[in-house]
Write a structure and sequence with these properties.
The structure is a homodimer. Chain A is 44% helix and 12% strand. By secondary structure, chain A is of the alpha/beta class. Chain A has one domain (28-208): Rossmann fold. A five-stranded parallel beta sheet of chain A has the order 2-3-1-4-5, with helices on both faces. In chain A, 43% of the residues are buried. Chains A and B meet through helix 1, helix 3, helix 4, strand 2 and helix 6 of A and helix 1, helix 3, helix 4, strand 2 and helix 6 of B.
Chain lengths: 214, 214
């Protein structure tokens, strides 16, 4: 067994504060990472570009030396939430669990990017309430339904319109846009706003609020 | 909106590989952190010292500049797993979810320390199977029942012996020790082995296996 001098000495010296601290805390991890843990909660219709912006955001932050992790509604359903169906109560539980995991990631000091439709205001507010003030940053992908439906990257709108998917958000289930979210991302005028530009909007917000330093 | 030159240039130059990469991957995060993501799965009886070793381990690794996060059976029950009871199927689900979350943490590049009794070999093997070869490091707190019961830090053995807790591991429910775990921690002879020494055993293992570098 290897016991390096610095640990042995802390055992011999009971006044050493590092050893007697009960555990490594959030602040210690944040100092190590030079950032503050939080969650960027990206909400919006299917096809609104949530995953694309999540990727661009993780890229932009990684290039600045910041540690991020994406929790994607679809991906988590293959692991943690694979026991959940798409019926109403299971969708709520899907969101609850992702928020709880995001909370653990934020506590770990990580900038967690959660990307999921999360159509109901009530569910999103329950998630927000789990976090300390400021650490839940809601980003609304404000893209009109007809644009999302035209894109239809997974062919889901087509299936929903054909009645092959029931309770599809925007078709036969409502999407409730945020009333007071931190950031709204939208196409302005005729110019196309690229995902990396949208990501920069979020990064500027994080910078301004002090999340990119310990 | 701020769009730094390096991002703008990637937009103007479609051959730039950084921008076209779909996302930040595990290897990128590991390079950033200079470590490899994995889970240290600490199993053992109540009172065997799992949490104490988990804390000492997180301290020892933090002092080396490594990012860790502790998933504690008890703590997670207050959040993610607060819908679960202590009946058999819920205990299995408790373990499954913790393993799935540990998998996300490992994918984030973090050294995740999971500390929970996890008494059944079968359940632990299900967890192990979620991880790439080598990334699930099982640590057995090999402390005799009578020692744990003498310590009884939470007074749970007393309650179990009095019949006030049913199905308590070691009393009226079995603990199945690992057959082929990576690390066994035990008191050797008469000398007391301190938690930080046990942590050093684990750290030496991680060092040897290359987990403390990218």
């Amino acid at each position: 067994m290897i016991a390096p001098p610095f640990l042995m000495s802390t055992m011999e010296n009971p006044t050493n504060i590092v050893w007697h601290k009960s555990s490594v805390e959030k602040l210690d991890r944040q100092r190590l990472l030079q950032q503050k843990g939080c969650v960027i909660w990206i909400t919006g219709l299917s096809g609104s570009g949530k995953s694309t912006v999540a990727c661009a955001l993780s890229q932009g932050l990684h290039m600045r030396g910041k540690l991020t992790y994406i929790l994607d509604g679809d991906n988590v359903r293959h692991g943690l939430n694979r026991d959940l169906s798409f019926k109403a109560e299971d969708r709520a539980e899907n969101i609850r669990r992702i928020a709880e995991v995001a909370k653990l990631f934020a506590d770990a000091g990580i900038i967690c990017i959660a990307s999921l439709i999360s159509p109901y205001r009530k569910d999103r507010d329950v998630c927000r309430a789990l976090f300390p003030e400021g650490d839940f940053i809601e980003v609304f992908m404000d893209v009109p339904l007809h644009v999302c439906e035209n894109r239809d990257p997974k062919g889901l709108y087509k299936l929903a319109r054909a009645g092959k998917i029931k309770g599809f958000t925007g078709v036969d289930d409502p999407y409730e846009p945020p009333l007071n979210c931190e950031i709204v991302l939208q196409q302005k005028g005729r110019d196309c706003v690229l995902p990396c530009e949208m990501a920069e909007t979020v990064i500027s917000y994080l910078e301004e609020k002090g999340y990119l330093q310990a």
